Amino acid sequence: MKQTCAKVLMGAALFAAPAFAGQDFLADVTQGAFQDTMHGVQPLTDSEKERVLGGYFVTDVSELRNVSLGYGSSLVEVGVAAMLNGYEMDNRVACGINISDCSSRSYVNQQRYNEVVSIANPARSEYLVVTATKTTRPGAFGVSIPTFTYGTAVFNMRTGWLTRTNSSSYVASEMMQRFKNEMNRVLVTQYR
How many CB atoms lie within 10 A of CB 15? Predict the structure, then answer.
């Protein structure tokens, strides 16, 4: 669980990096394993930073739980977290995943923001997470039977707690639609 929280924190921290300008944030987060100056890492110029109006970021699929329940049963859960970018936070809008052009005057974008913040408020270090869970139990003739379930949760970066929620939002629906297959693929290929 600690390793999973660390992955989510690292993902969240990478997107919060502009708040720590002047530091090699990537090196700090990865304890020197990666640096801003490594091959392939290209920082944005000031003019490029000003043009970024895109939608919220989404982390990679990360393991949240991997528990053996005994007698051939197990539970594995993975998730994807959404993080509003600086433009969205400043203008109180949620534009969509990696949208390149976003209107701060759009009523729909404002409502999406209000929806997300009512569930997981980034000002309190909370992030909306969609989850996929694979529960495996033994079946007849030694064949395991997997069951998949999906949900939403709130991850608090300060406390490290992942809290389940029944709240539904457009952002959670969009994330689930875009990443459900990828989460399933991870559950099926990496956790047999």
Answer: 19
Amino acid at position 46, single letter: D
- The tokens for 80 are 């994807």
40: exposed, middle or buried (Cβ count in 10 Å: 0-12, 13-18, 19+) = exposed
What is the chain's pLDDT, residue by residue, as a tens digit (192 residues)? 445 544 444 444 444 434 434 444 444 444 454 444 544 445 545 554 444 445 777 888 999 999 998 887 899 999 999 988 888 888 999 988 877 678 888 899 999 999 999 999 988 999 999 999 999 998 888 788 899 999 999 999 899 898 999 888 889 999 999 999 999 999 998 887
Q: What does pTM read for this prediction? A: 0.67
* Sign of torsion over alpha carbons 51, 23, 62, 154: negative
